Amino acid sequence: MGRIHRALNHRVVRLAGPLLGLACSAYFVSRLDLDEVGSAFGGMAWWWLVPVLVFGCVNLWLRAVRWGMLLAPAAPLPTAQLLGVGTSAALAGLGLPLRGGDAVKLLLAIRLPGVNLVDVAAAELLERLVDGLIFGTFISVASLAGGVVGWPLTLGLGAVGIYLPTLLAIPLASWYLGARP
Q1: Can you say whether residue 7 is alpha, beta or left, with left for phi > 0 and alpha for psi between -120 and 50 degrees?
Q2: pLDDT at 122
Q3: Which of 21, 92, 140, 151 could form a disulfide with 156 if both were Cys (CB 3.0 to 4.6 A apart)?
Q4: Nearest-angstrom CA–CA distance, 24 and 19
Q5: How far is 59 from 52, CA to CA, in rounded Å?
Q6: Using the 8-state DSSP alphabet, how is residue 125 labeled?
């Protein structure tokens, strides 16, 4: 495990993700019609940034609280410490492809006192299941309330149909596996 940490902490590896993200961003921006982007920004209602920023901060804080609850059996950790891990992972996720922020979250979280990789993996799995159920429910309710039929409703109900039973099966599986000698 020490060799893996040394390799991941190497300067080249640490710079590879942000450089790849920067290259992808440069390619994306080079393909845009900048006049059209400028006119879109000109028509924005900038006052919406205030509630977006407030709700974004509340979202990060609630995720840290949720992580604290999920990791509580392993080690009681202050929310501020978990918020630092979550914020760093969110920032890394902006520049890294393929949900790289989640990998950063795992690497930072296993460095916390009393937390090991199995605890973090279980918390991450539960977080993904809860997120899937929330998004599936939101899409389903929005589709039904808006009278939308077809693939959005199918997507939402399918997500609820997959994530809800899986989420309910986790406590049963942990009880069964934990009861084994």
Answers
A1: alpha
A2: 82
A3: 140
A4: 9
A5: 10
A6: H
Whether 129 and 170 have beta carbons less than 8 Å apart is answered as yes
Asked whether the beta carbons of 104 and 92 are under 8 A apart, the reply is yes
Pairwise CA distance, residues 90 & 96, whole Å: 10
Which pTM value belongs to this model? 0.64
CB atoms within 10 A of CB 27: 9
CB 139 within 8 A of CB 156: yes
pLDDT tens-place string over residues 91-148: 888 777 777 888 888 888 888 888 888 888 888 888 888 889 999 999 999 999 998 8
Angle (CA) 92 76 169, round 5° = 80
Task: Determine contact, residues 123/102, Cβ cutoff 8 Å.
Answer: no
Structure tokens at 19: 């450089």
Identity at 157, one-letter amino acid code: L
3-state secondary structure of 96: coil
Pairwise CA distance, residues 25 & 50, whole Å: 25
Amino acid letter, residue 50: V
Q: What angle do CA 33, 97, 12 make, to 5 degrees?
A: 110
